[in-house]
Amino acid sequence: MDGGDVSVDCVGLSRKFGPTVALDGVDIRLDEPEILGLAGPNGSGKTTLIRCLLGLLAPSAGTSAINGVPSLELGLATRGRIGFMPQREAVYSDLTVRQNVAFFARLYGLSNRREAVERALSFVELGDRADDRLRTLSGGLIRRVSLACTLVHDPDVIVLDEPTVGVDPVLRASMWRGFRERRDDGAIVIVSTHYLGEATNCDRVLFLRDGRTLAVDTPDAFLASTGAADLESAFLELLEEG
Ligand SMILES: Nc1ncnc2c1ncn2[C@@H]1O[C@H](COP(=O)(O)OP(=O)(O)OP(=O)(O)O)[C@@H](O)[C@H]1O
What are the residue boundaries of the ABC transporter domain, all occurrences included (predicted)? Predict the structure, then answer.
């Protein structure tokens, strides 16, 4: 990690697609290492929020910035501090696990490539599959390769769109341990997830519905305010109330 201050800001972020309001006035302010979960039903705006934040999509209204740089003006220096794992893998099935991660290391122009690749492989516990071609791996394993590619340059703002889909519970737990390690090392980690129960791993959760922030709070506060036994029930209750 390069060090330096990390921050993520959104003010009134909104995006329409024709008549569909995908995102409607979302505010986020993160200025210290934290794991922020993005939760919400299908179509609630999680991916749209991520794409606007990363400058991959222009908002219809509002502003956002990463490490103080407006999303639509992110240059190479700031992008080099961001790790993004999209919902659909951007990896190569004819290359081996190690070759895929090395390819991303080269894209980032890392000088300590070999070491960075081995560190990323060990982070996702794929050292023993490093020479296997991706086309021979299961979906969950490919998800982990994609995560290794996302983290190889040691970013300090990490944005993960549904990283744990198709990953078994044991590996999911280990991925969350890894995210917490990154946070403890100084990173902001933003993770969208379908598995509402998994949001217990986050410091705070932003719960979206129909593009709007229904609530943003710590997992404990969600449980306390709803009186629910687990986060999944708490969120279902919020959806019914909201
Ligand atoms: N490129 C697009 N063109 C038209 N509509 C879009 C586009 N992208 C998203 N939408 C719409 O915007 C809304 C929010 O979609 P988005 O993908 O952000 O939700 P999501 O919470 O990430 O959903 P999921 O959990 O299913 O991935 C949905 O109604 C979706 O159909």
Answer: 8-235
| Token digits of residue 237 | 């209750």
- What is the predicted pLDDT for the residue at 193? 87
Q: May I ask the CATH architecture of the domain 1-81+201-242?
A: 3-Layer(aba) Sandwich (3.40)
pLDDT in tens, 40-68: 988 999 999 999 999 999 999 999 999 99
Query: What residue ranges do the domains of the chain occupy?
Result: 1-81+201-242
Cα–Cα distance measured from residue 91 to residue 146, given in angstroms and rounded to the nearest whole number? 7
pLDDT in tens, 105-116: 998 888 899 999
> Which residues are within 8 A (CB) of 86 and not within 5 positions of it... i.e. 6 or more apart?
161
Identify which of 42, 53, 191, 206 to mutate to test ligand 1's pocket (most ligand atoms within 8 A of the CB). Answer: 42
ipTM: 0.97
Query: Measured from the CB, is residue 40 less than 6 Å from ligand 1?
Result: yes
Ligand 1 pocket residue status of 64, Cβ below 6 Å: no
- Residues contacting 7, CB < 8 A, separation 6+: 29, 30, 31, 65, 66, 67, 68, 188
SS3 27: strand
Mutating to test ligand 1, I would choose from 13, 17, 85, 239 the residue with most ligand atoms within 8 A of its C-beta, which is 17
